[in-house]
Structures are given as C-alpha cells and as structure tokens.
Design brief:
This protein is an alpha/beta fold. Helix content is about 40%, strand content about 20%. Strand 10 and strand 11 form a beta hairpin.
C-alpha cells in the first residue's frame, strides 16, 4: 500500500488585514437636561453608531448637570430620565463639572449649554480659557453685557477653543452661520429684517379678528408654543436678544439697551406672577384690535418684526404690505432677510420653522460636529 505524499505547499498568505483607525474621542458635557438638553441626549444616542462607523468619531458623554445636581460618569438612560440612578451624583458645581468633562486632557472637551441661564454664561470665558469648547442655544452670553461678551471672545482667541451658537437665532435654521459666511467672504451687512419668534409668528398669522387676541394666546400656551410665562414672548425681549446677537456678529457693539422694544404686555401686567397675568389676558384685546384695524385700513397685515440698520435697532408689531415676504410666512416660520453689498437688489432670505426642542437640539449637535470637524474629523457620508 503506497501513500501519495503531496509536494510541499507554498506558504499560506493571509489576506491583508485592513487596520481600523482608533476613533477620535470627544468628551461631552451637557448643562441643562430640559426639553432641548433631553432632545440632544436622544439625538446623540441615536447617531452614535453611525458616527463611529462612518466617521470614526466617538462622542463620549461624560457628565450632565442641571441647576441643582450633576451626574458624573453616568449612563444615558439615567440621564435622559433625569433620575438619580447614575453612577455618581452630587450637588452641581459648574467649574468642577467642566474640569471633570475635560479630564486629563487626553482628548478635546465640549460643553453643550442647553440652559437659558446668565449664571452659566458667566462661566464661558473661564471654560474657553482652559481650552474647553462651548456650543449653545443660550442667548444670554451673546446678547448679555458687552464687556462679558468681549471677555468670552478674548478667551476663545487666546486658547483656540471654539464657541458656536447657531441655535441662538432661528433654532435649527442656518442664520448665524449664513451671516458669518457672508462677512468672512468680504460682504458687508447693510440691514437685517426679520420675524424672529415662532410664537409671535403663529399668533399674528392667526390673528384676523375672528377671535380675541387673548384667546389665541391661551391656545398657544395650551399647545406649548409659548414660554411657560407668555410674557417672555410678548414682551419682545427674546426677539431683541436675537437681534443683538446678529448685530454683534456683524461687528456692531450693540446692547439690549440700544434696541427700541415695543412690547405687547400692558404696563399693569408687566409685574406680578404668571397666574395673575393669565387671569387678566383680556387686557390685551382692545389694544390689539385697534392695531389690527389700523393695519387693515392701510391695506396691510400685522406682523412682529425686528429691524437692524446700522446701529438703529427696533422690535415690535407693524403693518406690512400684502405682497411682503412676511405676509406669506407659514405658521411659526422664522424669516430673516439679509441685505448686503452683494445682496442689495434682492435680499438673501433664510426661512423655516424657528422653534422647538428637536430643531434647536439639532443646531447644537451640528455645532458640536463643527468643533470635531475643525480638528480633522471627516464628514460622514449621507
């Protein structure tokens, strides 16, 4: 019996193993797990597998803080439910919180401030000076005291840390980014004209005299379109903050005190608690009915409009012509018209839904990705 012996085999060549680059890790901390913060947490969690697979980007959630508590080394489910089941919980101390997110400096750190707090905005300069990036829809920093805003800018310039705040104007609309691109490419801003409040856009879109204005405010409040205290919308202050942000983006040293604000709240209702104001909403009806009658007599419609021309800034209700772009805005749309040296005959218009936690959170998320992109992380394929 013979056994056939096969000739010696050539060495087996294994298929080349494609090296997988380690992910680029960004440490993330979120301040303010309210409606916007919770929406951001949900968006981060859903996008994580795609970002890791397609971009080799890992957004590592390190901590979350509200006004009283901070969760460190925490799991998403505990945070999103805002329970005390996270791994470490302690009273909130923002500088300690920021230091924890930054860790040992092994990777970039980004703080997403989803609050509406001046107290948090006061920390920006220190965080940026320490090299911690900040992304935010909080209007308090960019529209607050001019000296503080200059300190924030100086801190970012000295450290190289980035501050992005697209969500402060128009929620998820590319308003700030569009203006920044115009200016960075050498254009010059002539004027801004805008409907910058989704709440007020909805109210004036519906206000045709068939219902008292107070009834529409109550409806908007019940639907969640207004702030918990509708005076925050009706006063015009929120819109004024947005106008100041755009002015400062264009290099104008404007402050809230420089904006002429025509509020809708009668003097007798400016102070006092929210319940008192809601009980006396009918005090708005006669003045608003008179404004509507005047607009109709002039052949126009009522809209809440913000204007900036040079250093002249105003916010208030006015009649616009039926063929004006603002007359045809849909429901809660924000509309911003930039007139510039290039766009002088036909203004550049940014328009779309300008309110809501999901679109605002998406603007913060996009800013976070801009920070990562500035560090060389590739954009993900759609």
């Amino acid at each position: 019996m013979s056994i056939a012996i096969a000739p010696p085999c050539s060495p087996l060549r294994a298929a080349p193993v494609r090296a997988v680059a380690p992910p680029f890790v960004v440490h993330v901390g979120i301040v303010g797990p309210g409606k916007v913060g919770s929406a951001l947490l949900a968006q981060l969690r859903l996008a994580a597998p795609r970002l890791l697979r397609d971009c080799r980007l890992e957004l590592r959630l390190r901590a979350v803080s509200d006004s009283r508590h901070m969760w460190l080394d925490c799991d998403d489910e505990a945070l999103n439910g805002r329970t005390h089941g996270a791994q470490t919980w302690r009273p909130a101390e923002l500088d300690e919180f920021a230091a924890y997110v930054a860790g040992d400096g092994g990777g970039p750190a980004v703080l997403a401030d989803c609050s509406a707090s001046d107290f948090v905005a006061d920390r920006y300069a220190g965080w940026l000076a320490a090299g911690i990036h900040v992304v935010t829809p909080n209007k308090r920093a960019a529209s607050g005291p001019l000296e503080r805003w200059r300190r924030i800018g100086a801190a970012a310039g000295a450290s190289g840390a980035r501050l992005h705040y697209e969500g402060t104007v128009g929620a998820g609309l590319p308003v700030v980014h569009t203006l920044r691109d115009l200016l960075d490419t050498g254009d010059e801003l002539v004027s801004v004209e805008g409907m910058l409040s989704g709440t007020l856009a909805w109210l004036f879109h519906r206000f045709d005299g068939s219902l008292p204005f107070s009834a529409l405010v109550r409806e908007a409040h019940a639907l969640g379109y207004t702030e918990p205290d509708p005076r925050d919308d009706l006063s015009g202050m929120d819109v004024a903050r947005k106008l100041v942000i755009l002015a400062r983006e264009a290099g104008l040293p404007l402050s809230l005190e420089d904006v002429r604000i025509g509020g809708l709240v009668p003097d007798a209702l400016v102070h006092g608690d929210r319940e008192m104001f809601m009980d006396h909403l009918e005090a708005l009806d006669a003045p608003m009915a008179a404004l509507l009658a005047q607009a109709r007599a002039a052949g126009g419609v009522l809209r809440h409009v913000a204007r900036l021309h040079g250093r002249k800034a105003s916010v208030g209700v006015e009649a616009v012509a039926p063929d004006h772009a603002f007359a045809h805005a849909r429901l809660s749309d924000n509309v911003v018209r930039f007139t510039t040296r290039r766009y002088c005959d036909n203004a550049l218009v940014v328009q779309g839904p300008g309110a809501g936690p999901d679109v605002t959170a998406a603007a913060v998320f996009a800013d976070l990705l801009r920070v990562a992109g500035a560090m060389g992380v590739k954009r993900c394929a759609c």
